[in-house]
Amino acid sequence: MAPPLQPEMNPIARAYLWVSRIFTICGEMILPGILGYWLDQYLGFQFSLFALLGFLFGLVFGMTHLVLMATSLQNSGRVEEAHPEHQRDDLD
Fold it and tell me: Which long-range contacts (CB under 8 A, 24 or more apart) does 6-10 make?
């Protein structure tokens, strides 16, 4: 059985929703590295250890959030998914 249809959103509201999602993911990926760079400069490190760790952490955290967001949208019925096992065979 297909999930119930949700009311159609205003296109401007949908655009703002996607822009906020994109900026959130970008911020999650970039801000830890910027904070790590600031910490490296504050502590006077020659090698940017905290910046590197921050960008790695941001990459993992941002990608995890992106995957969770994509699976939640798919499970909520907003993304169409083909189910070949539920299709009726015409050869019967």
Answer: 6/77, 6/78
CA atoms within 13 A on the CB side of 23: 6
- What whole-number distance in Å separates Cα of residue 58 and Cα of residue 50? 12
How far apart are alpha carbons 89 and 31 in whole angstroms?
52
Q: What is the pLDDT of residues 32-79, one digit of tens each?
A: 999 999 999 999 988 889 999 999 999 999 999 999 988 887 777 655
User: 0.85 cut: is pTM over it?
Assistant: no
Question: From CA 79, how far away is CA 90, in angstroms rounded?
Answer: 26
CA distance 19 to 39: 30
